[in-house]
Write a sequence for this structure.
């Protein structure tokens, strides 16, 4: 088992990147080279057209995370990297639960549990129903535990997505970059450009 | 000849739009477009080896033999090391061609070497047809993923139309910021495909890539304030000064501030060997003074160097008393190994003049005297016997010393890896920058012979001397064939101690003289050289040494001089692994 030092804790690494084949590998090997496990990884288009946002979670010391963040930012196709401990971000994970429809229809207790955990039905079929909930790991775990006795068929959880509390949004930064060194290829999202603080908590 | 036009102005009104002719496009194959791009980037020499997946590029090259000098090597590893030598002697981007599969994988060692030593390269590999990717086709290998950790950037092209932009980015990325190797993998269909090409546009900007940091003057001011208070300042410089072409700026800074300066092996030659403020080499086999006094200085100014473990020894015993100023263009280097009190992030060509302006003119006579005292100790304990031995057998040091007398520091010295490398770097006299070419970070045996070939193509007016051991030369000895075919004039100085000497030294000192597989046999090198139509001589005594060195240098073409040196000599001083620089041993 990997020994955890007292300075290690969860950090959320946020990277804004170009959408390029092979970049995921380039980023992943920065961790694997140092034998660091990525606990969670999400990548999807950001608010800026053509720019992707990576959310990665690692358990490490601040010093190590800072060096990793710089190494990621050094990659040619990476625009900007931020790293934050948990208290500096708002984060969620999404979970889907597939349970037999007859059991939940039969038992009022299941309906109560789902309600308590804020689950929402996504699909209801004769044979099974899929519920969805979002929250921290403990919250989605808890629903998983309580549904176990009622014939849970399948379960899946997403990676963590996190928003940085103290951020003015990356599109500002990008525009600042582009002001000093304009590039012909930049395309920003018109909707977000007109709404400066839309991503500020 | 390809037209390298500036960007066309954007038409501002319908009239001018009519008046401005459309930029002339040309119908070319992807292979032709590749060569046009190389010419537009100013490439004059390519090192390569043909093969199935790169035949279309070689076919196009047939028509470009006047403009592009293609050097046919004997192995792709030799090709990439030659390109490294070329890049390091000329300051230009080295270019390599290789085919898919084994051709491409043979580049990996050179890519890793160029990545860790920040050498600008563009490697172009052929790849199987795009529709065959992922089918385990003949000579298919996933070279993009194989080379990702050892390239600054890499990219696969599957359509001819992408070629000019990919190559423009490749050259821009390879040479800008902290330089490094780039690999472009071009599928065979993309090389053969015909397309319409607009005039070549060099790349000058990539949105996600900022190679030139904005210099923050407040940090320069803080650095200057620290330097101005310092009683015992020490400068450590590395290859960054050379890569930033800031040799003059560096010299001005050193001469005004009067600070003694020591170098990493890749920084050698930036300040001439004989410069009064050059206090010698850093690191495991560096000079006594700069190592010991690193742990006594009050302000340590690191310029374009990365605190490699061979320089620092044990980090928790490294310069703990000093305030550290770190000038580097690569932000990942700042605080990576040694915490900087003042980080000066930027191109040293910009930051050094700002710093020079703010520092006070000093001479630090007492502090500099400390270095001279340590030098005297090192001369007495090590250098005297190494350069002017009284025993019968020749030492590596006296060979380099004799060579210095003949070259007077004007030659380019290319070294391989091991004991001879440390001796050559310690004792070679260098008057000029870009005169010491060696595999520093990766420590690649077999580097020197091909790198020397490339170095000569990159600096044809200079004498290029490859100093190689009997282990390293046997790793890439096939490149004698490249010398034979091209007629390139490279002097090969083979220091033969009949051992893998550096490993033997460690086995002697740290493993109870258990000499495990370091006793390496050699062929008759002079005969081997003769087989390749290269002149040669072997010497094993002091009287014959200088005449033989003279013969080698005066010979009109390449020459191999094998010098038999004492078998079990150790390189000292030495900072043993796991020790601090202050614990450097003189014997």
């Amino acid at each position: 088992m990997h020994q955890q030092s007292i300075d290690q804790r969860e950090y959320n690494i946020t990277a804004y990147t170009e959408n390029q084949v092979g970049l995921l590998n380039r980023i992943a090997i920065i961790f694997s080279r140092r034998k660091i496990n990525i606990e969670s990884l999400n990548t999807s288009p950001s608010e800026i057209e053509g720019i992707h946002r990576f959310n990665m979670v690692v358990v490490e010391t601040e010093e190590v995370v800072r060096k990793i963040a710089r190494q990621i930012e050094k990659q040619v196709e990476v625009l900007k990297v931020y790293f934050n401990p948990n208290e500096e971000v708002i984060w969620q994970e999404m979970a889907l639960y597939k349970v037999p429809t007859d059991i939940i229809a039969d038992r009022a207790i299941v309906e109560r549990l789902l309600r308590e955990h804020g689950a929402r039905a996504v699909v209801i079929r004769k044979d099974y129903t899929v519920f969805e909930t979002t929250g921290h790991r403990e919250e989605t775990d808890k629903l998983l535990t309580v549904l176990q006795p009622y014939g849970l068929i399948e379960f899946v959880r997403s990676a963590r997505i996190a928003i940085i509390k103290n951020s003015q949004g990356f599109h500002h930064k990008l525009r600042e970059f582009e002001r000093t060194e304009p590039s012909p290829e930049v395309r920003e999202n018109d909707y977000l450009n007109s709404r400066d603080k839309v991503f500020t908590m | 000849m390809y037209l390298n036009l500036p960007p066309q102005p954007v038409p501002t009104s319908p009239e001018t739009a009519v008046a401005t002719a459309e930029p002339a496009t040309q119908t070319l194959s992807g292979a032709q477009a590749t060569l046009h791009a190389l010419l537009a980037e100013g490439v004059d020499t390519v090192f390569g080896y043909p093969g199935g997946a790169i035949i279309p590029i070689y076919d196009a090259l047939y028509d470009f033999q006047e403009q592009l000098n293609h050097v046919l090597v004997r192995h792709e590893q030799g090709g990439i090391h030659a390109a490294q030598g070329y890049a390091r002697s000329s300051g230009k981007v080295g270019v390599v061609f290789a085919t898919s599969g084994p051709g491409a994988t043979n580049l990996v060692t050179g890519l890793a070497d160029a990545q860790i030593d920040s050498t600008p390269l563009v490697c172009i590999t052929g790849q199987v047809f795009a529709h065959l990717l992922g089918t385990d086709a003949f000579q298919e290998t996933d070279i993009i993923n194989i080379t990702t950790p050892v390239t600054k950037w890499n990219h696969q092209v599957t359509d001819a139309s992408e070629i000019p932009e990919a190559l423009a980015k490749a050259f821009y990325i390879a040479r800008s910021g902290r330089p490094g190797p780039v690999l472009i993998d071009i599928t065979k269909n993309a090389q053969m495909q015909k397309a319409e090409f607009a005039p070549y546009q060099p790349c000058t900007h990539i949105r996600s890539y900022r190679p030139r940091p904005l210099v923050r003057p407040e940090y320069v001011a803080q650095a200057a304030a620290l330097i101005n208070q310092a009683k015992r300042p020490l400068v450590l410089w590395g290859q960054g000064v050379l890569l930033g072409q800031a040799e003059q700026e560096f010299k001005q800074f050193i001469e005004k501030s009067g600070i003694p300066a020591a170098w990493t092996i890749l920084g050698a030659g930036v300040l001439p060997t004989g410069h009064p403020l050059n206090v010698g080499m850093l690191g495991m086999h560096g000079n006594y003074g700069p190592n010991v006094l690193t742990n006594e200085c009050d302000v340590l100014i690191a310029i374009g160097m990365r605190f490699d473990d061979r320089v620092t020894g044990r980090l928790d015993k490294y310069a703990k008393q000093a305030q550290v100023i770190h000038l580097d263009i690569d932000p990942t280097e700042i605080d990576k190994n040694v915490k900087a009190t003042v980080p000066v992030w930027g191109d040293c060509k910009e930051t050094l003049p700002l710093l020079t302006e703010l520092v006070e003119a000093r001479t630090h006579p007492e502090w500099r005297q400390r270095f001279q005292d340590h030098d005297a100790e090192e001369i007495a304990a090590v250098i005297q016997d190494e350069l002017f031995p009284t025993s019968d057998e020749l030492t590596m040091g006296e060979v380099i010393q004799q060579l210095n007398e003949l070259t007077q520091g004007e030659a380019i010295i290319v070294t391989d890896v091991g004991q001879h490398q440390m001796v050559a770097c310690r004792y070679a006299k260098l008057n000029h920058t870009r005169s010491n070419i060696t595999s520093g970070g990766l420590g690649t045996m077999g580097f020197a012979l091909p790198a020397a070939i490339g170095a000569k193509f990159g600096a044809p007016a200079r004498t290029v001397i490859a100093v190689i051991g009997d282990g390293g030369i046997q790793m890439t000895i096939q490149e004698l064939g490249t010398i034979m075919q091209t007629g390139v004039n490279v002097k090969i100085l083979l220091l033969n101690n009949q051992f893998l000497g550096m490993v033997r030294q460690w086995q002697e000192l740290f493993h109870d003289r258990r000499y495990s597989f370091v006793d390496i046999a050699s062929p008759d090198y002079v005969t081997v050289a003769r087989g390749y139509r290269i002149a040669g001589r072997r010497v094993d005594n002091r009287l014959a040494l200088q005449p033989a060195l003279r013969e080698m240098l005066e010979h009109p073409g390449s020459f191999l001089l094998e010098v038999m040196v004492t078998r079990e000599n150790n390189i000292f001083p030495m900072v043993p692994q796991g020790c601090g620089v202050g614990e450097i041993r003189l014997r």
User: Anything to note?
Assistant: Confidence is low (pLDDT under 50) at residues 1-19 of chain B. The longest helix of chain B spans residues 365-387.
